[in-house]
Design goal:
129 residues; mainly alpha; 2 domains; 0% strand
Length: 129
């Protein structure tokens, strides 16, 4: 989370429910307006960043974050942190953890595509890497 996001979250949490509701309504209005004006840029297809033969878990998380820039990483923080902990604290093999991270990111990408266009499926070639 960058400084602006953190500041906005702090301000939001200090407000009462009515003011929070007003901010949410305004944010949704701005989002719709940006969509209508074509100012909302969302990468829909993953970047083609191949997995190196040898990779550390942290590097894999960075690679997958760059591969799927459209995904909100903070919504995946608990799952990625749990996998990282299994590797560091429990000695789980990096390759196994990275395999599971790739599944996690791919599943979230499929969910993202379903939210964008509920009646369509992502190209299987994109998710079966």
């Amino acid at each position: 989370m960058n400084k602006t996001e953190s500041n906005l979250l702090n301000i939001f949490s200090d407000l009462d429910k009515n003011d929070q509701s007003s901010i949410m309504s305004f944010a949704e209005f701005l989002l719709e307006k940006a969509k209508q004006d074509g100012r909302l840029i969302v990468a829909v297809k993953p970047m083609d960043i191949p997995r190196p033969e040898e990779e550390r878990v942290v590097a894999a998380i960075k690679r997958l974050s760059a591969t799927f820039p459209m995904l909100k990483k903070n919504s995946m923080l608990n799952e990625t942190a749990a996998l990282m902990s299994e590797h560091i604290l429990k000695g789980r093999q990096a390759e196994d953890v990275i395999d599971e991270l790739e599944v996690l990111f791919n599943v979230r990408y499929v969910d993202f595509c379903q939210q964008c266009e509920p009646d369509s499926e992502p190209d299987r070639a994109e998710t079966d890497r």
